[in-house]
Write a structure and sequence with these properties.
This protein is mainly β. It is about 10% helix and about 40% strand. A five-stranded mixed β-sheet has the order 5-4-13-8-9. Strands 6, 7, 10, 11 and 12 form a five-stranded antiparallel β-sheet that branches. It has a five-stranded mixed β-sheet with strand order 17-24-23-19-20, with no helix packed on it. A hairpin with a 2-residue loop joins strand 8 and strand 9. The chain starts with a helix and ends with a strand.
């Protein structure tokens, strides 16, 4: 295993404490499954140091049988499954919104995203073994070992999503134990939802009749209209970010690239939360004209991204490359960051644009 310092050197680091870093876009597009060393990192507190031999997960709340279980107990009592799924920060591409007006949070470009094979047990199997109700109005609250201020990190998801077959408690990533920054020894993986709903370093799960009251759930990760500010925003009126929307990004060539006249291969990714990407359009003139990209996706991985490739023929001059995706509901993306701007900088889903010079 490489050192944490060596892994940091591979990423674009936005902060050391807490540690937040994204993948360079050209490397992100190199492989359908993102290597753990290259996977983006989002932390809200310091990395906890956990002894897997003494670690325990506690389950309580509206359960027939509250329990405490070890890592070996999870492995031995429940079926091990692997799900290929994309994880994405709700602030991915926030940097594009900063061009409109100031926003809070790390200035993610398009690399706060990655896809991996997650291995663990189905959260639903564990909850049903403990006598969880089938009442879909309930919520599953997670608590982790990392701290945000004076409280442990905590979020929740609807019970229906917790019982869904794709939702895991994962102990491995791409066939290897989780790295410390990715949640060792156990994390939740909630495909289709924002990464904030897949907490790392788990220690406590509670089934309850209301969402978590932890500030991460109750106050943060809310989508506000553009007229709300940090001073006026009321979390009660903000939309809680769960399912991630349609999005796409150009990974190569990079912004500012100097290219030769003629053939230019443009590559990137597209994601659609819990829907399928059915089309990706690419433009060389800022959106006046479009061609369709070739798509690459694994049919057995409905919660994973779609890779796309387009071949352009570029004459001399400056060119504004742009991409937009379409999902299975026939929806596409807004054109400008002005259309989606909010003071938190969440869910930047406008066309991704890259200006290049051709000589």
């Amino acid at each position: 295993m490489s050192s944490l310092a060596a892994r940091k050197a591979r990423l674009i680091v936005h902060g050391d404490r807490p540690y937040n870093a994204e993948t360079p876009l050209d490397r992100l597009r190199d492989a359908y499954r993102t290597a753990a060393d290259d996977f983006y990192v989002r932390c809200h507190g310091d990395l906890p140091v956990i002894d897997p031999d003494t670690w325990r997960l506690t389950l309580d709340g509206a359960l027939g049988t509250p329990m405490e279980v070890s890592l070996d107990g999870l492995r031995s009592r429940f079926q091990t499954v692997t799900i290929t799924a994309t994880m994405q920060c709700a602030g991915n591409r926030r940097a594009d919104m900063r061009a409109v007006a100031p926003v809070s949070g790390d200035p993610w470009e398009g690399g706060a995203i990655g896809t991996a094979d997650w291995t663990g047990i189905r959260l639903g199997d564990l909850l049903r073994s403990a006598g969880a109700p089938e009442d879909r109005d309930r919520h599953v609250a997670f608590e982790s070992h990392d701290a945000v201020g004076d409280r442990p990190y905590g979020v929740s998801i609807p019970l229906a999503k917790a019982l869904a077959p794709e939702t895991l408690l994962a102990f491995a990533m791409n066939g290897q134990p989780l790295l410390p920054e990715h949640g060792f020894p156990l994390r939740a993986v909630v495909p289709g939802f924002a990464g904030v709903r897949s907490p790392k370093w788990l220690r406590h799960i509670t089934v309850q009749d209301h969402p978590s009251d932890n500030p991460i759930q109750a106050s943060d990760y809310k989508l506000y209209p553009p007229d709300e500010t940090a001073e006026t925003a009321d979390p009660v009126r903000g939309h809680t970010i769960d399912t991630m929307p349609l999005n796409a990004a150009i990974c190569t060539p990079p912004r500012g690239a100097a290219l030769e006249v003629g053939a230019c291969r443009v590559r990137g990714y597209a994601v659609a939360g819990d829907r399928a990407v059915i089309r990706v359009d690419v433009s060389s003139d800022g959106g006046r004209n479009w061609i369709q990209a070739t798509l690459e996706h694994e049919p057995e991985a409905p919660f994973a991204w779609t890779f796309w490739t387009a071949e352009l023929d570029l004459p001399p001059g400056e060119h504004d490359l742009a991409v937009r995706a379409w999902d299975s509901a026939g929806q596409t993306q807004p054109a400008l960051p002005d259309d989606v701007w909010n003071h938190k900088g969440y869910l930047c889903t406008c066309w991704h644009r890259v200006r290049v010079r051709v000589t």
